[in-house]
Automatic annotation (TrEMBL):
This is DUF4429 domain-containing protein. It comes from Streptomyces ruber. It comes from the Bacteria. Pfam families: DUF4429 (PF14472), SHOCT (PF09851). InterPro entries: DUF4429, SHOCT.
Length: 285
């Protein structure tokens, strides 16, 4: 493909294996788009494509991200407004035929995938990152998250706990609640399931709270996405159990079973020994 389709606030460049989304930096462009700059979305990170009527003489081309493929959308957890959805391209209605052409072309190129992605396929916003919340300053250097409390906003529980630092390899995820809703916050989730956080984010030393212009979406959401991506990258590899450790080349197992059968036919192995050893070999597959 390699063509470019320009809409309001963004342009999509269609490549053989991805869609490159470039966001405008104009005054009317949503601040989240300006903060993101551009994003490359691999085709395997897209679950589907829709084209629907928009408002005031527009049409909307949208790529549906696969669950688990984009740390930004995972962190957002469906809380973004339509106008702030980076996977929507709004175009004038007179470009509907052209948009439909690109939608069909994109659908034809999508790989056949089923279910959530096993890993993040879209790059997270780059660090280092920081932003001011209502009760503290959050910083992320790529390996650890730090909270430094403000005496004007932090609760006594946070002052008592002191400033905090959290290595990403000790975290299991993040909980982002949009500052545009009640009780907005960013909470870090401990890998140790026994460490239950307090119910209220303003009492939890592993959380910062938003409000009164603090922790805006274009600052706190990319921050949360960057931390989430680092946490996923730091997750330990799945443990290899005894059964998995025994797995061998199927061709080798087949040769050994064939040889065992020859020994059995020659009377060098009893029926019981043949049955037992064959079962052991099959278990190694």
């Amino acid at each position: 493909m390699g063509d470019v389709l320009a809409g309001f606030h963004a342009a999509w460049e269609f490549e053989s294996d991805s869609v490159l989304i470039r966001f405008e930096r104009g005054i009317r462009t949503p601040k989240l788009f300006q903060a993101l700059g551009e994003r490359r979305i691999p085709l395997e990170a897209i679950a589907g494509v829709t084209l629907t009527p928009g408002r005031r003489g527009t049409v909307v081309l949208r790529a549906e991200p696969r669950p688990g493929a984009d740390p930004l959308m995972d962190a957002a957890a469906g809380q973004l407004r339509e106008s702030g959805d980076p996977y929507r391209l709004v175009l004038p209605a007179e470009r509907e035929v052209l948009a439909e052409y690109y939608a069909d072309e994109l659908r034809a190129r999508l790989p056949e995938t089923d279910g959530p992605a096993e890993r993040h396929l879209v790059a997270a916003p780059e660090g280092p990152r920081q932003f001011k919340a209502y009760d503290g300053k959050a910083s992320f250097d790529g390996s650890s998250v730090s909270f430094r409390w403000f005496w004007t906003g932090a609760s006594s529980a946070k002052w008592k706990a002191g400033d905090q630092s959290f290595p990403v390899n000790e975290l299991s995820g993040v909980e982002w609640r949009s500052p545009e809703v009640f009780e907005g916050h960013l909470r870090l989730l401990h890998r140790d399931a026994a460490t239950a956080p307090p119910g209220q984010a303003d009492q939890d030393p592993a959380a910062v709270v938003f409000g009164l212009g603090y922790g805006p979406v274009h600052e706190s959401l990319p921050f949360a996405a960057a931390v989430l991506a680092a946490v996923r990258a730091a997750e330990p590899a799945p443990a290899v159990g005894p059964a998995a450790a025994r797995r061998r080349d199927p061709a080798d197992i087949a040769d050994r079973i064939r040889h065992l059968g020859e020994l059995h036919q020659a009377g060098l192995v009893t029926d019981e020994e043949f049955t037992t050893k064959k079962a052991e070999l099959l278990a190694e597959l």
